[in-house]
Each structure stands twice: as C-alpha cells, then as structure tokens.
Design brief:
alpha/beta, Rossmann fold, 5-stranded parallel sheet, 13 helices, 47% helix, 16% strand
Length: 312
Amino acid sequence: MYIKRDDLSGMQMSGNKVRKLEFLMAEAKREGADCIVTIGGIQSNHCRATATAARYLGMECHLALRQAGPLVDRDPGLVGNLLVDRLVGAHIHLHTKEEYARLGSEKLGQVLADKLRAEGKRPYVIPVGGSNALGMWGYVECVREMADDIRRLGITDIAAACGSGATLGGLALGNQLAGLGCRVSSYGVCDSEDYFYDFVDDLIRGMGCKVESRGAMRCVQAKGLGYAMSKEEELATMRDVSMTTGVVMDPVYSGKALHAMLQEMRASPDEWRGRKVLFVHTGGLLGMYDKEAQLLPLMNEGRVHRLDLPQA
C-alpha cells in the first residue's frame, strides 16, 4: 500500500479542498466577487480551507455552519477547524441540523448570499465541499500529476474517502481519461452508494463527459455511526496507523475510509492479495481535536509519566 499525502497540500493542512479551490477561487476572482460564501458542518475542513483561501486573496469569507440545536445560539468556541476559521477572520453564521435538512445546502447558501447582496457586497457561492463540475477538475488534475508514478509502481487500485463526491469523481474520471486501468474505490462517510453514483454522474455530465460512474468506480459504505461520528474501533485504527507509521489520519474522512478498507481486506484477502493500492489521504487533522474525550482512553497506555528527579 502506498499513500498520497494530499493532507499536506498547504493552506494550514487543508487537504483535498485546496485542489478544488484552485479552480473555484479563480472563477470568483474573474467574476469580480469581493466575498465568498460556503456551507458545512461545525468542524468542516472545507470551510476552514475556503476561509484561508479567501484571506489569501483579500476577500471576506462567510461560513454557514451546521450546529446541534441546543448549541446554535452559543459561541461555538475555538476547537479544531473553528480556531483557523476565526483566526483568518471568517464570519460564522450558525444554523441547526434541522434547518439544514429542511432547506438544503443550496438554499442556505442562496439566503446568505442574498443577505450580503442587500448589504452591497458581491458574493460568490461555493457548494458544500467545493463539489461541482468546476471543483472536480482539481482531482482530474491530481490523477494527471500522479499518472507516471502510478504506471511506474504498477498501482492497481486507487482508494479514498468520499464525503461530497467531487474528489472521487475526479479520481475516477481522471483514471478513465488517462487510461490507467485502476480500480477506484470510494469509501462513503455519509449518504448512500446510490446517492454518490448519481451525484458523480451529474458532475461528469457537467464537465461534458460521457463516462458512467458505476463503471468507473465502486462505492463502499463506510459511515459507521454517521457523519462525523466515530466508533472506538475506527479511532483505534487511526491510533495504530499513527503509532506505526507516523502518518496521522482524521476521524471524519480518511480515518474512516482506511478502517473500512482494512476491514474489507481482512474479510476478503483473496480479492486483495497481490494488488498495489494507492490510498489518497485527503486531510482533516484538526477534526481530531473534537474527539478528545473518545481518544484519551485509547492513548492512556503508560506513555505519560512523572519524571523522577534527584532531590536538591
């Protein structure tokens, strides 16, 4: 197994979001926007990356963040991604999970953008995860970047977590366009397999291509307890990987995907034997801070000691 360290793509460890934002922010500048609007969960890696990119380009950023109902009227604090959001000056607009389910992300973005236009601003709205046809170009380009190494190493499989769809859609389409012949595995951390196939089909059509997602990638359910909710065994896998290799995963995306893939390998060893797998680490380290209470018991294995010093 090999790993593509897209968690190290820059912008405060913003991971795979940077590749999409390269295209989306360029369009925002071209259209003369002076502020950016995007949507996500309270610990959204995408929102943190977007806030940083906007500040790089001298634009305001407005984040519509989904919060649990009882907490929606409180200051969300500075845990994890929120620390970076607020350090770079993002404006935080909180809404509940129920409001998100009722209105949907597109309507929420539109409501916030309309509010900003009424204030005389020129907003550019980026969808959840930066996942549209334009953003997907980032991962078509990623495959082009990796293609020579994939051929040289004899890679047979490309695998990654799937949250909003464009990363895996780009990897699958790029694999097809480059003629690499790899099996592309999408480990979904939310929604259903059918949802991702249909969503990626829409993105590919939006790029003017005729590739069918069901023939270009395989979707595997990996959400476990639910989006951003971690099982102890998932966190234990992340701990074992970091203690063995020094590579730190994240609890929402890559950690869950890697755990699910290792489970598949153990359950069906003959299907994986002899294959060479490239796992794309999409980032999200700061989300680990939100899991402190669950992680601490897994770390408490005699590794913290009081240093015994001679008496003066």
